[in-house]
Amino acid sequence: MTRVLSGIQPTGETHLGNYLGAVRNWVADQHEHDAFFVVVDLHALTIPQDPAELRAKTLGMATLLLAAGLDPEVCTLFVQSHVSEHSQLGWIMECQASIGELQRMVQFKDKSAKQSGFISAGLLTYPALQAADILLYDADRVPVGDDQRQHLELTRDLAIRFNSRYGDTFVVPAHAIPKAGARVMDLQNPEAKMSKSSDSPQGTVLVLDPPDVIARKFKRAVTDSGTDIVYDPGTKPGVSNLLSILAATSGTTPQAAADGIGSYGALKTAVGDAVVATLRPLQARYAELSADPGEVARQLAVGAGKARAVAAKTLARAQHALGLLAPG
Ligand code: ATP
Ligand code: MG
């Protein structure tokens, strides 16, 4: 069976892009593959975090993933820092990456530009930790949004480099970027991807936003000049984004989603309604699960045990290949 692995940061508020570009596909993937999903709390440390908030958000993210339909009986769901092999292989992968290739990562450039003053070394090196996250599980496929394409390419490069330097050790993973919803754009700035770390509350639709808030955000979405409802991201980024979201939430293509919609107003109402309906079951389940955080923590402990069993073997293989002396 194909092994898949993907991760999500616990910080920031989970938005429609995370759901359509990643989480929703994970729920489907778990039934078809041997699937590992990880809440990457160590990645969150690349920018300063409030400790109490980080703890709460990590549990909250796990709750949200369960609410979205990840089933711990079917897949392996765990928290990155609970499996110390991630940090251990992370260091090894840092030593395989060059500073130059890490500095070329678009996300590093974007995120470091947003930091005022202090920029952690981890912000630069975290794609090497991400490579470790993936390689530890011999993942064949990594289902992520289109924004992660460059990082995944780096993971592949590092795996190939390691294998050619030290002998066949890692499975080289392929991307699995979904067709619909792969890149959801900000409703107020459709040139930029919807992002947890952007400061655009009106442009970011949160998966836990109440229905009236979702409807309002879509009503106020930036559209383009003209009145035609056509899918053309180059000249009509706003309308095209709404059509992509409508397509992704109603199981059609962006071109077909435009059929029968006569005005920008009608498009905004249609997409708002489709998103509210898509998120309704998740929101209801989240409310139920939040009432029992102890149960979520127990599920995570089981997941960490399953993950560790796989990760420990891969780490030992890499350590041996590198010439690290086995403990006596
Ligand atoms: P940040 O801006 O802090 O990096 P993020 O919004 O990119 O946050 P992540 O936790 O980094 O969220 O990503 C989780 C998953 O969501 C990844 O698979 C990523 O590819 C996907 N994703 C993130 N943003 C979008 C988007 N706008 N459209 C589609 N998929 C997305
Ligand atoms: Mg991201």
Overview of this structure, please?
With 328 residues, the chain is mainly alpha-helical. Helices cover 55% and strands 7% of the residues. The protein is built from 13 helices and five strands. It has helices at residues 16-32, 41-44, 51-68, 85-94, 99-103, 106-114, 121-135, 149-166, 211-219, 237-250, 254-257, 264-290, 293-322, and strands at residues 3-8, 34-39, 76-79, 141-143, 174-176. The chain has a three-stranded parallel β-sheet with strand order 1-2-3. Strands 4-5 form a two-stranded parallel ribbon. β4 (141-143), α8 (149-166) and β5 (174-176) form a beta-alpha-beta unit. α3 packs across α13 (293-322). The protein is globular. The protein starts with a strand and ends in a 6-residue tail after the last helix. The mean pLDDT is 95. Adenosine-5'-triphosphate (ATP) binds next to β1 and α1.
Summarize the entry for a quick read.
With 328 residues, the chain is mainly alpha-helical.
Low-confidence residue ranges: none
Gyration radius (Cα, Å) is 20 Å
Helix content, binned percent: 40-55%
Ligand set: adenosine-5'-triphosphate, magnesium ion
- The rough form would be described as globular
Strand order, sheet with most strands: 1-2-3
The major sheet is characterized as: 3 strands, parallel
Distance between the termini: 35 Å
Total DSSP E strands: 5
Helix/strand/pairing category: mainly alpha
Tally of alpha and pi helices: 13
Overall pLDDT score:
95
